[in-house]
């Protein structure tokens, strides 16, 4: 940039950023290991990343090695890098840590070597199978406890108890109960539990796209994706807030974590928002909602598109195409909220002297767009996602060499390999426990039972079913990541939505969007709390403000169910009408919450605007026509009286 940002309270280093992420994702602080031990762990982490880059380029060696190495080495690194408790030493590895790490490697090696035999003798469990299975299950629970906290470990343990004591549960949930040997065998010896589909998805897709994000950021692209929107939006009213919207959409699609996105872009955008007049809690809320939306933004969607593709069997590109319009509507609403808020507060943008030249920024950094463009092209052309990720990673390194100051030399590449592995531990640590949960669901038939319960509680009403799923997702999201919440509910709740007539993809998108609610909805909204820490704002106030700015998270799941044309399903005329109707509905919803159209709204106007928003969002031709008519009348009234000042002196656009 031509000038440095002033008065920014930015973490001093990547380590400080990681500590913020850890604090608000429930992670224990990582050990800082130096000397020979630290170098050994770094080497193993780099080789771990290289192994999956190799597989991405040439293909999976075998299912058991692909999944086993991911689960086992992830656990190995977690036991060495994450202390067992706050009282554990932070600068050295304990004997217990070493034993657990060795046990993780041992059980993994046993699974990989013995899997062909275990698969051939299904139903017959040897003593060694049983012992290794029990150890692997315990290790999976301890891994996730150390890295993400107690919640997911407790949930997985409850599922194990359900598998064993099934005959003691109420009739709707009851089953015959399974022995420890049977649970251990199904969870460990098959490809349905610890090493099931979730392990395959994370190993084959998620990990490689985390690696891509790490390399892209290391190449200097992260700075470009902030500098470029800053250069041409900074002068507009509330400009820094609009920068947050655009930059967070770029970065969030890649990094896959709302909290990580807040810490990455928020350390720059939040101080700038405060500088032009946004209150601390408002600046934190805008960054929270913008960062959360990154996971909804194609083409990568924080790897969510790949997870969804594996669960539904729908091609990746088909998912990306239908997700584009809803994601744009999410950011359209947020942009309007930011713009109207700036009008309400009379905020201006930054002075031209403080901003870089947009064309110079684009000229200097346009090459950073190439890796993402190549990923999109390769996926459209039918190449596998792992191959596309590997090529994009190589291009990221190449892009870094355009300018001398960003060049990635062998040491930088090595550090990026290490950082990719370490960064992946936050999500990788959850794989074993998610596998346990899904394994028990398959073993006991809980998925069908849960669907029956959901249908029963909702009385067969789709609206109530969606509300119940949203509540379930929110409760889960208080203690686990959005991706984890989606995976669990995709297995349990998606079948119920399909029974109620919701198309397959729409069912999964409902759950996927609902899984993000916990990031913004108090009392536990981790992304908002992280933003509040940067903004030095009151956490709960930031959370409640985020809730208002994130209304599409609550609106769009209902649209997916009742107006599937928004997902490009149906006849062209219906799709066009639906998109126009929902877009206008989103617009009037923003007007309602910010009390602004062409000018500030008086009370009666605001009430009418709220009614119009509701009419346009309802899935009915009749309400659409009434809504269109009222919308036209409101536009005419507001335009004619746009220079009239109502209630207070506010500078108009």
Report on the structure:
This protein has 653 residues and is mainly α. It has 3 domains: 14-196, no CATH class; 199-294 and 303-424, no CATH class; 570-647. It is built from 30 helices and no strands. α14 packs parallel to α28 (572-594). It is globular and about 85 Å long. The two termini are 28 Å apart. The model is unreliable at 1-12 and 646-653 (pLDDT under 50).
Structure characteristics:
about 650 residues, mainly alpha, about 70% helix, about 0% strand, disordered N terminus, disordered C terminus
Biggest sheet: strands, sense, closure? none
Structural class estimated from helices and strands: mainly alpha
Strand % is under 5%
Percentage of residues assigned to helices: over 70%
Radius of gyration using CA atoms only: 25 Å
Output mean pLDDT: 87
Backbone shape? globular
Number of domains: 3
Number of helices: 30
Could you give the count of β-strands?
Answer: 0
Rounded to the nearest angstrom, the distance between the terminal CA atoms is: 28 Å
Uncertain spans, ≥5 residues at pLDDT below 50?
1-12, 646-653
The arrangement of helices and strands along the chain is HHHHHHHHHHHHHHHHHHHHHHHHHHHHHH
């Amino acid at each position: 940039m031509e000038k440095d940002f002033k008065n920014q309270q930015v973490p001093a280093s990547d380590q400080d950023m990681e500590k913020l992420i850890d604090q608000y994702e429930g992670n224990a602080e990582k050990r800082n290991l130096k000397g020979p031990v630290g170098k050994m762990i770094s080497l193993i982490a780099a080789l771990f990343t290289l192994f999956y880059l190799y597989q991405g380029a040439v293909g999976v060696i075998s299912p058991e090695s692909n999944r086993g190495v991911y689960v086992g080495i992830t656990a190995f690194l977690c036991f060495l890098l994450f202390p067992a408790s706050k009282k554990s030493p932070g600068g050295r590895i304990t004997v217990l840590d070493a034993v657990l790490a060795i046990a993780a490697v041992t059980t993994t090696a046993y699974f990989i070597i013995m899997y062909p035999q275990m698969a051939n003798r299904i139903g017959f469990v040897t003593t060694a199978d049983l012992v290794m299975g029990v150890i692997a299950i315990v290790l999976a629970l301890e891994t996730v406890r150390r890295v993400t906290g107690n919640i997911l470990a407790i949930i997985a343990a409850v599922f194990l108890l359900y598998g064993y004591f099934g005959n003691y549960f109420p009739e709707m949930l009851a089953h015959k109960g399974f022995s420890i040997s049977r649970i251990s065998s199904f969870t460990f010896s098959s490809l349905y539990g610890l090493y099931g589909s979730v392990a395959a998805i994370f190993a084959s897709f998620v990990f490689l796209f985390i690696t891509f994000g790490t390399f892209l950021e290391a190449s200097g692209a992260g700075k470009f994706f902030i500098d470029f929107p800053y250069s041409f939006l900074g002068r507009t009213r509330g400009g820094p807030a609009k920068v947050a919207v655009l930059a967070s959409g770029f970065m969030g699609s890649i990094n896959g974590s709302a909290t990580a996105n807040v810490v990455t872009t928020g350390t720059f955008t939040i101080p700038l928002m405060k500088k032009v007049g946004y209150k601390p809690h408002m600046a934190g809320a805008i960054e929270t909602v913008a960062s959360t939306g990154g996971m909804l933004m194609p083409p990568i969607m924080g790897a969510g598109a790949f997870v969804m593709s594996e669960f539904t069997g729908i091609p990746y590109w088909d998912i990306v195409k239908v997700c584009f319009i809803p994601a744009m509507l999410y950011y359209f609403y947020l942009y309007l909220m930011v713009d109207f808020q700036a009008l309400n507060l009379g905020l201006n943008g930054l002075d031209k002297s403080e901003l870089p030249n947009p064309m110079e920024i684009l000229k200097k950094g346009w090459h950073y767009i190439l890796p993402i463009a190549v990923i999109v092209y390769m996926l459209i052309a039918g190449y596998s996602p792992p191959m596309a990720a590997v090529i994009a990673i190589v291009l990221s390194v190449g892009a870094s060499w355009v300018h001398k100051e960003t060049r990635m030399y062998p040491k930088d590449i090595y550090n990026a390999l290490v950082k990719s592995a370490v960064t992946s531990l936050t999500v990788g640590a959850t794989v074993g426990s998610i596998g346990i949960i899904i394994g028990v669901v398959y073993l006991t038939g809980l998925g069908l039972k849960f669907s029956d319960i959901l249908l029963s509680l909702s009385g067969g009403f789709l609206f109530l079913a969606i509300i119940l799923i949203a509540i379930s997702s929110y409760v889960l999201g208080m203690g686990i990541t959005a991706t984890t919440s989606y995976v669990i509910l995709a297995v349990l709740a998606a079948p119920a939505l399909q029974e109620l007539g919701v198309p397959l993809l729409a069912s999964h998108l409902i759950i996927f969007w609902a899984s993000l609610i916990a990031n913004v909805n108090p009392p536990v909204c981790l992304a908002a709390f992280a933003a509040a820490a940067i903004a030095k704002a009151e956490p709960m106030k930031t959370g409640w403000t985020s809730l208002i700015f994130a209304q599409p998270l609550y609106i769009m799941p209902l649209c997916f169910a009742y107006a599937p044309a928004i997902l490009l399903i149906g006849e062209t005329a219906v799709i066009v009408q639906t998109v126009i109707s929902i877009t206008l509905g989103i617009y009037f919803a923003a007007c309602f919450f910010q009390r602004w159209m062409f000018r500030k709204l008086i009370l009666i106007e605001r009430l009418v605007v709220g009614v119009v928003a509701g009419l346009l969002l309802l899935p009915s031709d009749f309400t659409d026509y009434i809504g269109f008519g009222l919308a036209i009348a409101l536009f005419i009234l507001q335009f004619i009286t746009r220079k009239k000042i109502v209630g207070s002196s506010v500078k108009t656009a």
